[in-house]
Request: fold
Amino acid sequence: VMSYPGEYVLPGGRQDPPETLRECALREFEEEVLCGGSLDRNKVQAHHFYTFTTKVVRNVRHEISSFVALGEDNPWINEINIPYLNGRARENLLMEQKALESGAYWSLDKAARHAIGSEMVELKWIPLPEAVLITMSSLPPPELGTVFVNAYQEMNFRKHGLKRRDPMMATMFALLAAAQCQSADELRSLEPVTSSHEDKHKLQRGNRASKL
Reply:
């Protein structure tokens, strides 16, 4: 269960060896965006362009690798039926809620729980500048308090007594790396850019200085 509901995030998850990073990215896209549907992976042109290294937590440091699939390289993107997938997600969420209320959920195995649940509430195309602002709003100055993405998020934060959003650092840096490219060819030619948690503190100090 996510501790910060209502966040707009990119599909992603842990790499399951022996799968490659690309295979992991495509599997997570199928599971989280296509609600368990499948892609013709031979037709997918996905470019690894960014890696974010987290701080050490419990002696473990994670690397978050980002891929981009450009619309002009991937005609199948235009065939994604967003209203249908949002309907599927709502149906799955209702089934999960009913199973929780009846208590039947806890007798299901992992595969069955996954089948009736959904990690997604809403699938939405968001322009790149707006997406960058959404991630930056997860790190507001203290005097502003929590800046909510939407009414759904605000409602769930109040319902569960949550006080602050999870900092969207990795997503923000990846989006900024893409936004700096002047053309699709420039983005395609990028070798994976790498930044780390230490860069986060540099950015925060810079933001505070500019606000002052």
Remarks:
- The first helix runs from residue 21 to 32.
- Confidence is low (pLDDT under 50) at residues 201-212.
